């Protein structure tokens, strides 16, 4: 969550944040902003031990560890705590470079050092989640916001069909497939995505 | 002798897919807030 600037600026009735290590004084924010709570723990611990069974969210924003496995686990857990008309947003599905798309953070750092790359972005292989959603989450429709660094938005609206793709094929997706199979990302302007969500809720 | 060209021609960026450096990108906060605004007093969870 870095310094909490994104989360703290959002306007909502109730805000819950989960992060293994907050880099700001979350106790102070909790006292100053009513309806805000913080859980300094992993997402697995939150979903397994802290979140109440009757908890249901309107909007869940996933920006955890940038690996496909962890983000898919967060996504599956999130669907159990999402209201029927709720929306899930997943960050960083579009890595800004090949190096930024590597799931192993140590390898990313070593390649950066060897190649003189001074950028620090790391999105990992979260892009593989898009192919997972497309193939295995038929009860959800989704889009990736155009002209953004890669935010996927998904909501409950069944899709008529899904691609014939194995789980192994999803796991073997590579950085090049972001471009070669860009239709899978279903890129759309934010305004169009909002209209689709509203239409699905009627 | 069959020599490959030194450089592959670069095609113009597509407007359909976000480029590596999107022009005038929408901030993540604006996107999340726009979706929150679809709800009355929304309850939201953020991981990470």
From TrEMBL, chain A:
Keyword Acyltransferase part of the UniProt annotation: no
InterPro entries registered for this protein in UniProt: SAM-dependent_MTases_sf (IPR029063)
Keywords noted in UniProt: Methyltransferase, Transferase
GO terms, biological process: methylation
Domain of life: Bacteria
Keyword Signal recorded: no
Pfam families: Methyltransf_24
Molecular function (Gene Ontology), one example: methyltransferase activity
Name of this protein: Class I SAM-dependent methyltransferase
Annotated organism of origin: Sphingomonas daechungensis
TrEMBL record, chain B:
Superkingdom, natural source: Bacteria
Protein name as catalogued: Uncharacterized protein
């Amino acid at each position: 969550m870095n310094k909490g600037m994104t989360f703290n600026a959002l306007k909502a009735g109730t805000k819950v944040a989960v992060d293994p290590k907050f880099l700001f004084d979350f106790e102070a924010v909790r006292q100053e902003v009513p309806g805000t709570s913080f859980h300094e723990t992993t997402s697995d611990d939150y979903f397994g031990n802290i979140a109440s069974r009757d908890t249901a969210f309107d909007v869940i924003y996933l920006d955890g560890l940038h690996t496909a496995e962890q983000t898919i686990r967060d996504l599956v857990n999130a669907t159990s705590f999402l209201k029927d008309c709720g929306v899930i947003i997943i960050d960083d599905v579009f890595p800004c470079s090949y190096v930024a798309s590597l799931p192993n953070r140590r390898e990313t750092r070593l390649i950066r050092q060897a190649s003189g790359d001074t950028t620090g972005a790391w999105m990992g292989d979260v892009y593989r989640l898009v192919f997972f959603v497309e193939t295995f989450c038929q009860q959800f429709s989704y889009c990736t916001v155009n002209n953004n660094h890669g935010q996927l938005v998904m909501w409950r609206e069944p899709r008529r069909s899904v691609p014939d793709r194995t789980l192994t094929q999803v796991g073997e997706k590579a950085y090049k497939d972001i471009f070669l199979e860009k239709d899978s990302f279903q890129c759309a302007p934010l305004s169009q995505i909002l209209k689709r969500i509203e239409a699905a809720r009627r | 002798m069959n020599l490959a060209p030194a450089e592959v021609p670069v095609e113009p960026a597509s407007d359909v897919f976000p480029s590596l450096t999107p022009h005038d990108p929408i901030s993540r906060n604006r996107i999340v807030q726009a979706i929150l605004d679809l709800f009355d007093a929304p309850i939201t969870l953020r991981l990470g």
